[in-house]
Amino acid sequence: MVVQERRRRLLVLGICCMSLLIVGLDNTIVNIAVPAIGHDLDAPLSGLQWTIDAYTLVLASLLLMAGSTADRIGRRRTFQTGLVVFSVGSLLCGLAPSLEWLIVFRVLQAIGGSMLNPVAMSIITNVFTDRRERAQAVGVWAGVVGISMALGPVVGGLLVQTVGWRTIFWINVPIGIAAIVLTALFVPESRAPRPRRVDVPGQIIVLVLLASATYAIIEHDWRAGIVALVALVALLLVEPRRPEPLVDIALFRSPPFAGATMIAVAAFGALAGFLLLNTLYLQEVRHLSPMHAGLLTLPIAAITVVLGPVSGRLVGARGPRLPLLVGGAGIGVSGVLLTVLAPDTPLVWVLAAYVAFGIGFAMVNPPITVTAVSGLPTAQAGVAAAFASTSRQFGSTLGIAVLGAVVNAGLHDRAMADGFTPASHAGWWIVAGCGAAILAIGTITTGRWAKSRQPEAELVDA
Prior knowledge:
Blueprint: H1 2-41, H2 45-73, H3 75-95, H4 99-114, H5 117-127, H6 131-162, H7 167-170, H8 172-186, H9 200-219, H10 222-238, H11 255-285, H12 290-296, H13 298-318, H14 321-338, H15 347-373, H16 381-411, H17 416-445, H18 448-452, H19 456-461
C-alpha cells in the first residue's frame, strides 16, 4: 500500500513536470524560429519581439492571480483548464495566418500557461506531505525548469529545420492532451483551507504596468512610459492598503527577497536577450540553418543539465551565495567575450562564450527561489516563491524588449546581415552588466548586513 501510494505521488509529480516542460520550452523555443517566422510572415524585428514578449508579459502578469484562484475553486480544475487553453492556443499559433494573429494566439497560450506552473507547485506541495519527499520533488521540479528552457533552442532548431516553424507550437498539443487525461485520472482535487482574496485592482495595475513598460521600450513610445510610471505609483499607493494584496510591498523589506527578485530579473533578462541575439547572429549573419544554430547552443543545455543539480546541492549545503557569485561571473564573462563579435569571429570563441553563459545560468537559477523565501515566515513562502516565478517571466520580457530595441536602434536602417554585429555590441554589454548586477546583489543580500536587516518577525521564523 505504501509503495502504491508513493508510485501515485511520483506519477502526479511526472504529470506536473509535463506541464512545466511545455511552458518552459515555450519560453525559449520561439527564439530559434524568429528568423523563419520573420521571413514567412514578413515581420520586422519589433514585431518579432512581440511574438516572444506577448507570451512572457501575460504570463508574468497572471501568475500570482492564478495561484490564488486555484486555491479557491480547486487546483486540479484550474490545472486542467490551463492545459486546455494552452493546448488550444498552441494549435492556433501553428495555424496563424499573420503576425498579428500569432501575437493574439500567443496571448491565449500565456493565459493557459499562467494556470500551470504555480498551480502544479501547489498540487505537488499538497500531494507530498513528507518534508523530505517534498524537498526532493521540488528539486526535480526546479531541475526541469532549467532543462526545459535550455533545451528550447535545440528542439526548436531541429523542428524548424526539418518540418517548419509552426511545429514548435504543435509539439505542445499531444503533450497537453496526455497531461489533461492523466490529470483527470490521477491528480486529486484540493483547495486551500483559507484561500487568498482576489485582488482585482492589483491585478489590473500589474498588467498595465508591465504592458505599458514593455510597449514603451519596444516601440520607443514615451507616452507608454508615462503610463508605466503612473501605474508604478498606483501600485505603491494601492497595494499596501489592500487586505490581501496581489503584490505585498512589505516583502521587499527582506533583503534576500528583494535581492532574489532583482537577480531573477537580471538572470532571465540576460537569458532571453542572449538567446534572441544569438539566433539572429547565427542565422542572419553567419547564415547557419536553424538546426545548426540550435545545436551550437547545446553547451548551454548540457551544462544546465549537469550543473543545475550541483548548484541545488551547494545551496542546501552552503547557502546561495557561492552559486550566485559563480553564476554572475559566468554570465558577465560571456557578455564581455561577445562584445567583440564580428561576422568572422571563430566559432571556438563563440562557443567559449556559450560555455561561460551555461555555467552562469545553471548556477544562478536554483538559488533564486531559496533566496526569495529565506528569512521569511513559512506562511509567506508560497507568495515569495510565486513572486520569484513572476520575476523570472518579467525578466525574460524585459530582456527581449531592451536588447531587441538596442539592436533595432543600432541598425540605422541597415540590413541585418550587414549591421547586426556592430549593433549587437551594446546588447552584449548589457548582458555583461546583468552578470555584474547578479554578482553585486548576490554579495550584498546573502551576507551579514542582509541578515541584520531582517525584520524581527522574520528572524523568529528563519
